[in-house]
Design brief:
Layout lengths: L6 H7 L9 E6 L11 H7 L3 E7 L20 E2 L2 E5 L12 H4 L4 E5 L10 H15 L3 E4 L36 H11 L6 E4 L27 H10 L19 E4 L4 H10 L5 E8 L11 E8 L7 H15 L19 H6 L2 H8 L5 H15 L8
Parallel strand pairs: 1-2, 1-5, 2-4, 5-6, 6-7
Antiparallel strand pairs: 3-4, 8-10, 9-10
Helix pairs in contact: 4-5, 6-8
Amino acid sequence: MSAVQTGLDRLIHQEASRVRGKRVVLLAHQASISSRFRHAADELQGVGADLLRILAPEHGLYSSAQDMEEVSHEGQRFHGVPLFSLYGDHFESLWPKPEWLADAELLVVDLQDVGTRFYTYATTMIFCMEQAAKAGVPVLVLDRPNPINGLDLEGTILQKSYRSFVGWLELPIRHGLTLGELALLANEEEHLGATLEVLSMEGWTRSMWFDETGLPWVQPSPNMPTLDTATVYPGGCLLEGTTLSEGRGTTRPFELLGAPGVEDQTLAEIMNARQIPGVTFRPTGFTPMFQKHQAKLCLGVQVHVTDRRLFRSVHVYLELIRQISKNWPDAFGWRTETYEFVSDPKAMDLLLAHEELIRFVMNGQDDYLDLDIDETTRFATRRKPYLLYD
């Protein structure tokens, strides 16, 4: 047995009475599996739940659609259960339709999050909780680990004027919460009014990384193939706000970055000279098979984490953006296309979501760390009432 039992594992082995004989709607994706590699839908039916339908977040049930790619599950079934998408071609498609919950007795949420504010599954959960509250349907969140541990915090706290699908709650970029803890915070601070229960894990402590849990890693989205990816993602996702390739279309997304016109050797020398703890930068080239700079040779670096306890992803990638924009301005630009249904503010503003941090980045300043420490210290106090684990 794994060192950690997820909420799903506890449900099927200890708490099956919570769902047995009840009409259930399940919010899940392909990483919603038990420690015996069975999907939550099969496990719920196996303990006697009447599974009415399955709702799938961005990327679809199989976590196969690329970012911002419309998903339609219309008419589809998963193991006999009707399947519905919560990521269509317009902003309103992100909420479940009232009729999907009207006949339910319980909404069960089982999603693997990655501990970063931008990752959209938490927002999808919040939207479903909001609709469940309106329908009078209780919510049961089956908790899972924060794969990059529940202690370390990074980044400034989202300001509500920048609220979007890639950031709905007033969280720092790396928030150190599990999805169950996020649900508790959202229900209280957003006044959702949901009848909420979180089935917590057994054996998980806040210092754990995913590879210490004994649980199987299933990629929760197409560009989150490994724990290494999740480790760099809090900063790596900021590259989406630029014209630099973040390595999508390669086998090492978010670890690889660059663009045509960047000098890889020089960039690596500049970054390594800064002696940032826990990381080394290796000059490299890569050719993305899709998205930015498709089929073009991009020169840049691979970010190699040498000590994940010291590594601070947001700091590292802000410094990479600063150095590339300063030294290779012709190879660098800010993304201007519509981003997650929003055309104004621009993508980088939505990702940074903090006026002072936006000014720092746009002006190429490097005094980010003091602001980070101040913001994360405040959040560490604010989150305490919602923590479920020591």
